[in-house]
Structures are given as structure tokens and as C-alpha cells.
Amino acid sequence: MNKFIKLSSIVLALVMSVCVFAGCSSNEAEKSNVLTMATSADFPPYEYYENDEIVGIDIDIMNAVCEKIGMELEPQDMSFDSVIGAAQTGKTDIAMSGITITEDRKNMVDFTIPYTSTAQSIIVVAGGEISAKADLEGKKIGVQINTTGDTQVTEEFGDDAVDRFQNGALAVESLKNGKVDCVVIDGEVAKALVDANEGLEIIADAYSIEEYAIALKKGNTELLDKINAALEQLLEDGTIDTIMDKYIEE
After folding, report:
1. According to the model, what pLDDT value does residue 23 have?
2. CATH class (in words) of the domain with range 118-209
3. How many CB atoms lie within 10 A of CB 177?
């Protein structure tokens, strides 16, 4: 009787082990089908919250990419100065948050092909002293921290000329309160901020022109190739243009 009980116990343990292993395999398979995306959801129209859901250009584009490569998108909201690090360390599969390709960033991550281009725009108080890029000399300039606007303005005018903010809305609030003379930020974000704040305008001079791409951990060539192939198709068939038109008025 004791032998039978022991044998039954062994069989039961084996069955349970198989079930647990099968369950783990199922969970791992589900996990491998999810593509995690670091983003900073305070950057309309590229990523922002609507009814507690992250939406925007980058979300729509990446959902279209995921449909092509057979994965499900999982955006993870964090501050912009953390998104590239999340991809670099493998905390997330990608980073996509209106990220401009720069040489410094290429040292940290691999980039996909560009999916759109944009201008760094200059926001000012309407009717103020600044009407051209040349007028920025000697002015206090607000930027979003760790953006290309931050880098470019600091390189050109020096650290003392720059006030850094966690997001564009805080920079614009400082402009309205007279603490900075202008704000340099990505073009479409600048339009959204001006639309939301009376008395501000974007001057005709662009500060610079740059390209957006998706960042991945260095060496993740399999995923990089899949995303690039999907982006090429979406650019060619007009899907990305349609997404841009949904959010941006000419």
C-alpha cells in the first residue's frame, strides 16, 4: 500500500511539473508576442493621453508596424530623458517618442530608418522682440530637457542661456510668465502648445530640421530588420502619410 501511495505521489508530481512547465511556456509565448515601447506621453500630437489611453502619431504608426510583424504593442509612459535609456538597456524593446537621430544617440542605440521629418520651432510671445532666429542672441531660451532642442541651443548659446523643463507645457508656462524669452521645441508640438495658449506664436524661422526614428538596443538586428521592412511598406503605401494627416493640419 505504501509503495502504491509513493508511486501515485511521483506520478502526480510529474503531471503537475508538466502542467507548470506548459503554463510557463504558454506565458513565455504570450510575452514574446508583446512589443514594449518606451514613450513620453506628454508630446502631442505624437503621444499623449486621451481618456486614460496613450494615443497619437507614434502609437498609430507602431500599431501598424506591429500588425505587419505579428506583435502586440505595449506602450510604457516615462519621462523623455528615460526613453532612450530604456531601449539601450533592454528594459523595453523600443523607444519611440518623437526621437531625433543624432550622432550621440547613435552611440547608445540603433535607429530604424526615419519615418518622418520635423522642424525645431521657436515659440515667442506675439508681438515681442523676437521675430527671427538671429534675435535669440542674449536671450533666455526654454527647452525640454535632453531633447535635440536642448542640445542644439546649448551648443550654440551656452549653458547659461538655457532653462530646462521636463516637458513643453512647463516651458511655455515659463514663457508666459516672462521667465524665458522663447521656447525651442519640435514643430508639431510647438503648434499644439501655441493652439492651447493664447498670445503665443511660432516665428517663421525654423531653428533646425531633423528626422524622427525608432530606437532599439544595439545589436537587436532581427527586430530592427523586421521594423524597418514594415516601415518601408507603410511609407510606400501611404499609411504613415494618412496617420500624419489624421493628427496634423497643413
Report:
1. 53
2. alpha beta
3. 8
